Amino acid sequence: MADKTVIDAQEAVKDIPDGAVIVAGGFGLCGLPANLLAALNKKGVKNLTMISNNAGIDQWGIGPLLAAGQVKKMILSYGGENKYFERMALDGSLEVEWVPQGTLAERIRAGGAGIGGFFTPTGYGTIIAEGKEVRQIDGRWYVLEKPLKGDFAFVKAWRGDKQGNLVYRKTARNFNPMAAAAGKITIAEVEELVETGQIPPDQVHTPGIYVSRIFRGQYPEKPIERRTVRKRQTAAV
Fold it and tell me: How many angstroms separate the CA atoms of 6 and 215, rounded?
């Protein structure tokens, strides 16, 4: 059985070229492959196409890549919380493809499953459907959506073994399983890296056959996308 471990994120991304298409897991900042995105920022590659549920925040995730002008196109469902994305999307310096969240998840899943496309009612009659094939099925109108695939996929898991078998934890098991299957080369960062055989087979969420490289990431902080607190109750006099 092949040992797929690499030393760190920098080693994992060393062969990613300019113009690469990257599918990144994560929902907001939960399950975000932060080490890989930071290493990509440090590497300085340009003209990237990023496929991700959202654009991160200013100083975390995809944010620094946008700030450095490394991304030419984003395919996403939510662009809030990031001033760089907002500015670039409005001034036209960033190509943006908006996709409804459920449709985005299914397009990524279809890419990993080898499905050529699927029909969904979501977006029919809106700008989402412009230029796309539509079809009436059982009296309801549907839009043809095509799969999304990447040259590389970045995923973050709670636990993984040296053969690349992955286990996600709670909300982090969101876009990561779909992303893991949708990349030609999938790179996984994990909180816990264990020996092959230490993860029971029926607990594996992403089989190692999908994963090309794996390493133990560093997580010194857990940033909050938008901090919301309840106002203090003033004691009655």
Answer: 6
